[in-house]
Amino acid sequence: MTPGLLKQMIASKLLDESLQVFLLDENNFSLIGDKEINCKIKYTERDQLPELNENQVRLVFWEELNESSASIDIAENIDNINLVINGNTFGCMDDWGFQAFTEYSFNTSDTKVEVYFNSESYGGQKDKVVYFIGSSGNCISIGDIDNNDDFEEELSEVFSIFA
Q1: Would the pLDDT of 96 be above 70?
Q2: Of 26, 66, 85, 163, which has the highest C-beta tally within 10 A?
């Protein structure tokens, strides 16, 4: 696959088939509105994708936009809440410094609460990364693939490693 075709495929997949992924920064996470709500985070990490067969490579694309926000609406009678996260950094995306997830729920000490993130991302592209994950678990990333003068050379190195 040529570098140009790879970039086209990634752009197409991001446009047509992408999932919204949340990034958790526990050091800067709080629930504050009219009052502060105590929130405990229960994060469990697991790769939720099928295992790769020998000599297969998985591509994971990650695009971050310049502006994003997330909020939730919580009933006034709730003072404590748990955010339960089924995280998935696909075994190698920790270098972003955050925990990634798509699946989550909120509960109080004994009851599931119907609360969901209201979120949006917009603006120009901040960063776009592609991860190559081999069947043996090795992971190589190429960052900022749209603004990387060395993309072709780095891609050649990746292909030689997985060949």
Answers
A1: no
A2: 85
